[in-house]
Amino acid sequence: MTPPVPLLLSEDHVARVAPADGLLHDPNWRMLEDADLDALAARLTEGKPRPIPIFAYGSLIWNPGFEVQARRRATAIGWHRDFSLSLEHFRGTPERPGLMLALAPGGTCEGLVLDIAEGTETESLRAVLRRELVAHELSANASWIEVETERGREIALTFYAGPVGAPLVQLTLAQQAMRLATAAGQAGSGAEYLLRTARGLADLGIHDDYIWTLQKMVAEAIDEAS
Question: Per-residue pLDDT tens for 59-69?
């Protein structure tokens, strides 16, 4: 379905968010090495479908970072998008904290299933697990969830569905918008992340009221501050 309201958030808004220096990762984390990633991948995928399906609902839609064999629309059953992961690194700093998407219980979430290209499992799983989980402290944040696709009910591997051991915040919509409008770090700004996600959904014909409301609020907040 084509979104009924066009995006208000734009590249011009993103360009008006002041950049910020910061850390890519929490310096206290113990980073996952190749051997750790391979062991985690083996545990997560033992006895699971092939090709390995990844459910994408945020940045993996527009930047998967691994070789994709096939894509198909999917709806996560019993989950919805929620900007609840608090960031003081990556796309945020302690002075300008950011937010990243997670999946929260309840409702549904439209996204994509990305099948990892067969024959690339080792390098593809290393890439996606290193990117999504990063460190031992976050390694519990991968899980298999039920999704509905053109094939019927399936399972797919996803990340931060009910986050474990991650810094969480419960903010009002207005508070989320203000954080996303001001946050920036070494990896870019919150506004950029939101714009890329909204565009990725729009390109697929997916409309998420929550994302569309936030992008409008973030654009308006940046306009008011300029």
Answer: 999 999 999 99
